Description:
856 residues, alpha+beta, 5-stranded antiparallel beta sheet, 4-stranded antiparallel beta sheet, 29 helices, 18 strands
Amino acid sequence: MNALLKRSLTHLIAIGAMLAITFSYFSPMLGGKVLKQQDITQWRGSYEEINKYVKAHDGEQTLWTNSMFGGMPSYQIGMNYPSNKVFWLDSALRLWMPNPAGTLFLMLLCFYILMLVFGVNQWLAVVGSLAYAFSSYNFLNLQAGHETKVLAVAFAPLVLAGVRLAFKGNWLWAMVLTAAGLGLELRANHLQISYYLMLIIGCWGIAELIHAIRNKSLPTMLKGVSGALAGAVIAVGLNLTNLMLTEEYSKYTIRQQSELTKASVVKDQTGGLDLSYATQWSNGTLEPLSILIPNVMGGGGQGMIDKKGSTAKFFQKVGVPAEAVKQMPAYHGSQPFTSGPIYFSAIVCFLAIFSLFVLKGEMKWALFLISILGFFLSMGKNMPGLTEFFFNNFPLYNKFRAVTMIMVIGQICFPILAVLGLNEVISGRVDKARLIKAGKLSLYIVGGICLVFLVLPGIFLEFSSADTDNNIANQIFGNSQMPDDQKKQMTNEFITALQEDRESLTRMSALRSLVFIGLAVASLWFYIQKKLKKEYLIAAIGLFITFDLWQLDKKYLNNGEFQKKNKNAEADFQMTRADMQILQDRDSNYRVYNVTVSPFNDATTSFFHKSVGGYHGAKFRRYQELREAQFDRIEQIMKQKQQMQPDTLIAQLNMQGLMGALNMMNTRYFITQAPDNQPIAVRNNYAFGNAWFTNTICWVKNADQEIDTLDGIDLRSTAAVDERYRPVLKEFAPTADPMASTVDLKSYEPNHLIYESNASADGFVVFSEIYYDKGWKCTIDGKDAEYVRCNYVLRGMKVPAGKHKIEWIFEPETFKTGESMAMVSSILLYALLFGAIGMWVRKELALDSKPVGKKK
């Protein structure tokens, strides 16, 4: 028992060290402060209606919300699946700490476990954890509020630990760690990161298969893999509800191919996301070098330009305030903008290359080559042949956007290679001559790249961002009274000065990386020459890596990003004069179109209102197409004619027949800019309401005709319906008089709507609700009723004459099935986990009880 406790104590000390480092970085949290994250604020706005429902129904979930885009499934915004009990394990592993400290600790702990599974020295495992967790991309995502992305990165090493044990034939613990790790990974619900993790496992698996065949150990490997596969089944079962609902919904989103056949739409079609949309954020051909030289492309954000550099001197000469230098963009890459570089640490890059010369086996090449492939794929539109090949031929690849995210493959693999290579050094398994040769070659490769960008960066880089730089110059000099030729000269001088500062920034960044590489090389040299003990080598490398990454991370996520916690969520959402005007309306069942923000890239409006717009990466494709065909032009007109009285403009747009689509979305209020530049609410009295009778059905042949028809018919009296729904409506022709018939919303909850209709004849009713047949069920007077899609995105149905109760309930059968399987999987997970732990403790105690001489 004492021996077991002693061994456990060493791990507790390591964990305590990681805990101390976590709170050292996030020290403001000890004072009760929270991190201000833009995307979390956006999410909070979209989640508010869901949150109110949960509170009002004692924790019961709603699977639908009307807060954005006219309505969408809530499980794509924020959802707790009660039968998936893996969250207990999540809470325990993070020691019940809140984010972002909890997430950082998870990254440290999970990588530590992976390194222990590889048999790495305990303290070297801690160093590897620091390298993994403090990689700059993690902190950029934490600062932005991309918590699901960082959580998926955090749990990836735990999955890889299970895979490693599987390849070594340890089927029991392979099953345990794969079930737990993959269960947590999938629960993080960032399938793009999980997809890239599967690419790593696939490539690694091929290498291990080759190794097993060569060494005639295939039966052992297959035994372990069978355990991992069993664990994977449990993990999928835990998350089956979310996976099934997501797969079901994905067929209706922008990640699915459009039904439109117009040339402007199909040119980028890949069966998933539009190619141009998915590759909007693409690395330049040299931008992946940011893993080694963080500011090779200028870094990100603002405040990077030297306050005493060429730009500052130029501003002083022309009379521009010195403070303007802080606003100048240092970034000169091919992305629209970036928050910061994806930096692994120069030392990690050096050690990863070093490991290729000292490690044996196929695994090193698998991890390295999949990383290099990831770097090339991150170039997206700047590597068109490779990108298009993967988009068109690789399963599911075209479902994901922001191809720069695939750099996370290298972020996972490089620290593994670095630590395994260093572990090989301190193990004594590599002779001195081989170590010196490996060190020299690695220094020539990695240090040589840094040296080139220190001495001659202009060979490869232009340090210009033409559109951005010219726009800034136009803002500075555009309104001046100087002649055009003088403006042109000033512009050229400004851009030249900015380029000089960017070049200087790249040079200094290359020098910085070269210094850290030199420190690592010196440490290795002293160790090889037996002038430095391995404990000091580990400590030195850990200190250098931590200082390197910590210093850079603090530029993007520092104590200034924290603020006092607001107990009331509304404190984060400033209620404007427009919001107060709208909320005076006693009938809350309407939608709002806010043109004072980017309506379809903003979810803050949803905190107070049901928004026509919103912010989400998996919106309905048809709604996106309706927006592009109808809503965008209204937004553009309203911004162009801000001097016109808003109510007059809305009336004019209605008279011109341009507001039909927004009226059918029951857009009762517009938020626009008043003459005093403050938001103001304008009521649209032409909105159709929550539902209405029509007297005509306009049959259309396809999606193209349906969306075009919206401009050609009176949507108040006519409904456009696709021919595919004729079997439902047959030859039905509405005879009810729309002016004499009524349909009123009597009860509203996001997942349960009750209407009352009254008509003297059979009629066709259009509901201002998004069509989604994977969960919405309708009854008339308690009897099941069929409905169809109409007006491209809405629901419509035949309603008989007389007075009737029409009830809509959102109850996907998929949810019930998934939750049943998740509960069974939860029971299996914890039975397996506690059983394996019990067997391990029993084995360790049995070994400790044997006499020392007989202990095996």
